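Notes from the 1:1 (GR / supervisor)

We went over the backlog. Supervisor wanted to see one worked example end to end before approving the batch request, so GR pasted a single chain during the call. The sequence is below; no edits were made to it. Supervisor asked that the structure be written out right there so they could see what the output format looks like.
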Amino acid sequence: MSRVVNVAAQAILNLGGAGLRLDGVFGTRSREALARASGPTKEIMIEFQRHFSLESTLTSGSNPEIEAIITAVATMVGVPPEFAIRVAMVESKLNPRAVSVTGESGLYQVGTGAIADVASAGYHVTPPRGDRTDVDWNVNVGVRYLKLVADRYVLLDIRERKNWARVYAAYNLGHANYVKLERGQYNDVALRRAVASQAAQLSAGGPELYLASVPSFLGLA
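Structure output shown during the call:
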């Protein structure tokens, strides 16, 4: 760690109390500590947050550093950067530390199924220190999985904006449930359960209205 980071860590501990853990430094308690800080200490704390790129600018809905990483990976893989960023926004609000109740984690809410599929397509990189919320690793898996879903499961050109809703539906629900959705098997128990577990904007109308709700959810409508 750099001297700036070390000094910042100590400053945060001093202001936040002995119970403040460094791996939670971007939570509510750290913001309270930041509000109490002043002068050089405050500047160092801000630099600490910037250095790790973990404090998403949720109020404005953007994080330039994270978006730059997504754009680079998406361009390399062949996914429109705008689409890749929109997916990360709705999956995690660009919060790298987001973890769902079912265990999906990081910017793209990556789960074991996505990891296995991406590995089968040739990306076998393991997350650093086993941390699936690692930004670079999570973006690589999430964006590669978007491309795989489009090419292998949905069979649509991901470069076409008109196809984004269906690609996201398959990414979000899983391939098996997406197939049932396209076939109109709206009463299927697994499909209904999968839709019900989604954000209210997607689940309110049940499977019948799920696809129609996706464009608005992604901010495309």
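Supervisor's comment: Residues 1-31, 47-60 have pLDDT under 50 and may be disordered.
Batch request approved.
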